[in-house]
Design goal:
Layout: H1 7-17, H2 21-40, H3 47-56, H4 72-77, H5 83-91, H6 105-125, H7 137-145, H8 155-165, H9 169-197
Helix pairs in contact: 1-3, 2-3, 2-6, 2-9, 3-5, 6-8, 6-9
The protein binds fe (ii) ion (FE2).
Fe (ii) ion binds near residues 26, 30, 57, 58 and 114.
């Protein structure tokens, strides 16, 4: 897929519309997770593009939460993002705020892993080390069932995402833990840079 933009443009746009460290960290995490999945699923040549979809997926959420995935096209058009990228971003709001279904495998992975990264991040913070490196699948499965834990992370969306991909929920969980373990350090490093600049 073509995004029509560079990572520098994507980062500038992300930081123009997002200030909260939590949102910036989430954007960087989903970027890293998407890159990991691209390689795993045989789309290594498109890892940059998958990553940019992850980086920008919540571009409108901080300032326009009521128009999530509806305001996004306008913001993305500011940097002339491709229609493919805009479709990918908007499709993660499928059945929530928009009627744009994930079609490409990349879009399904974004849909399935986005909310799950939030759950995994919250679960990791409960560990003595507070590190995702020590997170076990068993623990995540328990937290997934405990609907009060990180209640904002929609279990329905995660389950629907796994179904779209034709994956067992357990596979989605284990792979997304692995993806977050893979990118954790680089996410922290870049976030620290941005925070220092701000
Ligand atoms: Fe998200």
């Amino acid at each position: 897929m073509q995004t029509g933009i560079t990572r520098e443009q994507a980062v500038a746009l992300l930081r123009k519309y997002n200030e909260q460290p939590f949102h910036l960290q989430h954007a960087l995490t989903v970027e890293g997770v998407m890159r990991w999945y691209a390689v795993q699923l045989g789309y290594g040549d498109d890892a940059d593009e998958w990553g940019l979809a992850g980086l920008l997926h919540d571009i409108d959420f901080e300032l326009y939460p009521e128009q999530h995935c509806i305001k996004a096209p306008e913001l993305l058009q500011e940097i002339n993002a491709s229609n493919e990228l805009i479709h990918a971003v908007c499709s993660h709001g499928y059945a929530l705020t928009v009627d744009i279904a994930p079609e490409h495998e990349m879009e399904k992975v974004l849909y399935a892993s986005d909310e799950l990264t939030g759950l995994i991040g919250a679960n990791a913070l409960m560990l003595p080390s507070k590190s995702v490196q020590d997170l076990q699948l068993k623990s995540l499965k328990k937290k997934f069932k405990d609907k009060k834990f990180a209640a904002g992370c929609s279990r329905d969306v995660i389950t629907r995402g796994a179904d779209m991909l034709g994956w067992e929920l357990e596979k989605l969980m284990q792979d997304t833990i692995s993806a977050m373990q893979f990118c954790d350090e680089s996410v922290r490093a870049e976030l620290a840079e941005w925070t220092a600049e701000a």
